Prior knowledge:
Pfam families: HTH_1, LysR_substrate. This is LysR family transcriptional regulator. Residues 42-99 form the HTH lysR-type domain. The protein is of the alpha/beta class and 332 residues long. It has eleven helices and 13 strands. The protein has helices at 3-15, 29-34, 39-56, 59-66, 70-84, 100-125, 139-156, 208-214, 262-270, 280-288, 318-331, and strands at residues 89-91, 96-98, 131-137, 160-166, 180-184, 193-206, 228-231, 239-244, 247-252, 258-259, 275-279, 293-295, 304-311. Strands 3, 4, 5, 6, 7, 10, 11, 12 and 13 form a nine-stranded mixed beta sheet that branches. Strands 1-2 form a two-stranded antiparallel ribbon. The chain has a two-stranded antiparallel ribbon with strand order 8-9. Strand 1 and strand 2 (96-98) form a beta hairpin. The two termini are 42 Å apart.
Amino acid sequence: xxxHAYLAVAMAQQMDLRPAPGNSRPIPSSFAAAAxxxxxxxxxxxxxxxxxxxxxGSFSAAARALDVTPSTVxxxxxxxxxxxxxxxxxxxxxxxxxxxxxxxxxQTAGRILAELDxxxxxxxxxxxxxxRLRISAAVAHGRLxxxxxxxxxxxxxxxxxxxxxxTDAVLDVAGGEVDVAIRxxxxxxxxxxVRRIGQNRRMIVAAPGYLERHGTPRTPEDLRHHxxxxxxxxxxxxxxxxxxxxxDFTLPVRGTIEANNGETLAQLAVAGVGIxxxxxxxxxxxxxxxxxxxxxxxxxxGDTDPVSAVFVGAGMPARVRAFVDFIAEHLR
Length: 332
């Protein structure tokens, strides 16, 4: 039973501890005991009962939901109105309707109880890590590096339900789309917490067959005559970076295919479609298997992308803390 239902039942039982006629379900004595503390608690219970009445649409329906008599619910609402000195509900033989004051009270009551639910959940989460954990990671990095670790994490924390989202789109952590996002590169300033958990070096690669057909680029400028495969999302570089004689520079590249993830670019490169600039976590395995070759390494600026876990630090649930600590230890 959530906070809303608990408080509503407690309020109703404070008015009348007798169950509704014909209702065989027992009313827990703990609710009656919980209904007796102070005025602040009474007001919280009043909020919950009033919301139940509005949601159910009538005193009789609310009474059935709360396992009490309709007269008990009506008296509880009367007491709320007497205390406030305003009419909250307009009664008719067919239905109840909210006055302007009732609408304001209902909206405020809902917000207060939602915050109370959230507070209790946060407190509960400080104990044993449990609940749903939503994680986002780039498609290739997630498949190759993150997903293989999830089995071990699940063994350590069996009460956490993992929801893994593999996408190169940037999901909204602050807005609640995910709990933890694993991201590459420099991140914009925000109120989110960022913890570095690794790094990724980039390199330019091509398939041996492609190089045999089109020749091997010897300088960055040679790429102007090649099919360069690139990313299509907003943070993709408009040009590839290089270093010559200690000086860094960029060179615009063009190609016939764009993709939203590095693994797809690597597959296209392996197929001989063109040249790609990908992370070593993708390319190293293909190079070892002889399906890709690194090129222009003498001009590689040695840039690395930091790999970071991004999450909301304030009131961080135990499940988020457990995962961030785990991934930081095992991903490096």
